[in-house]
Design a protein that fits this description.
heterodimer; A: mainly alpha; Ferritin; 6 helices; elongated; B: 17% helix
């Protein structure tokens, strides 16, 4: 019973939050790709929210996400160019993109307040997952000091967005 | 009038005159770098100007709940003249994990 319960909990966790592939330590080109992908995913989700939502706070939050992640990704591209690193696609990036596409299809079916709540809840879960991945996997694995520093700033940005998303989610309740 | 009292009256005028000279208003600079207000805690007085220098590529705000809301675009400097005394805590609306505090003394 106990074993079955913990399996169920594990499955629920997998469904609720994006997972980052565990395994071999990612290289800097892979880390750059994962970080960039994580930003693109949030921009795509935000653009869907701007189109679908009629809630002023949700739309304004989504616009903040587009603006911030576009600015950071631009900075990330400038850094990889400077370091002559070519971002390299990998299993973690692909898993993330697949999970995000599935989530977006799921959210696309919702309307009105149900959509707003689901989007805000997913933003909270997504930002938590990215913060976890940055802290436990990507930052420790990165070898270039400038890349590491950008990822550390990334943690602060995601933490800021998480607090903002939690505030929006609480307002919708 | 007693001589002592006269002296006291003169002193009173001098002190009064000194009190009416406005203290020089200052500009206090707060830098924003990698989502941190630095220095986070500052002391100022009414009439002083706070100048936020945003070194980030991100837009920030200096917001006091129910009071001022200053937009600080990326790579820009924005100023605000302090109008009233009090201890204020401000934060960034876009990144509420960014916090600052200003102790504003009366003029």
């Amino acid at each position: 019973m106990f074993v079955r319960l913990s399996t169920a909990v594990a499955v629920v966790c997998l469904l609720a939050t994006p997972t980052f592939a565990q395994g071999a330590k990612p290289t800097d080109p892979q880390i750059a790709h994962i970080a960039y992908t994580a930003g693109v995913i949030d921009i795509t989700a935000a653009k869907q929210a701007i189109k679908k939502s009629k809630n002023k706070e949700v739309v304004s939050f989504a616009k903040d996400m587009v603006r911030d992640h576009e600015a950071v990704n631009k900075q990330a591209l400038a850094l990889v160019k400077k370091l002559k690193v070519t971002p390299e696609d990998n299993d973690t990036s692909r898993t993330l993109a697949k999970q995000a596409a599935d989530k977006q299809a799921e959210l696309a079916k919702l309307k009105g307040a149900a959509y707003d709540k689901a989007y805000a809840a997913n933003e909270v879960a997504y930002h938590k997952a990215v913060i976890g991945a940055l802290k436990t996997q990507l930052i420790p694995a990165s070898s270039n000091a400038e890349l590491k520093s950008l990822l550390q700033t990334g943690v602060k940005i995601f933490q800021g967005h998480l607090e903002h998303a939690e505030h929006v989610a609480a307002e919708l309740k | 009038m007693l001589p002592g009292l006269k002296l006291f009256a003169v002193l009173g005028v001098v002190v009064g005159a000194m009190g009416s000279i406005p203290a020089q208003a200052e500009t206090i600079r707060v830098t924003i770098d990698k989502l941190v207000f630095a220095p986070a805690n500052i002391s100022a007085k009414v009439g002083d100007t706070i100048q936020w220098v945003n070194d980030d590529v991100l837009a920030h705000t200096a917001t006091v709940e129910g009071d001022w809301d200053v937009m600080i675009p990326p790579k820009k400097t924005v100023s605000l003249v302090l109008k009233k005394a009090g201890d204020v805590e401000y934060y960034c609306r876009f990144h509420p994990n960014m916090k600052g505090r200003i102790a504003i003394a009366p003029k």
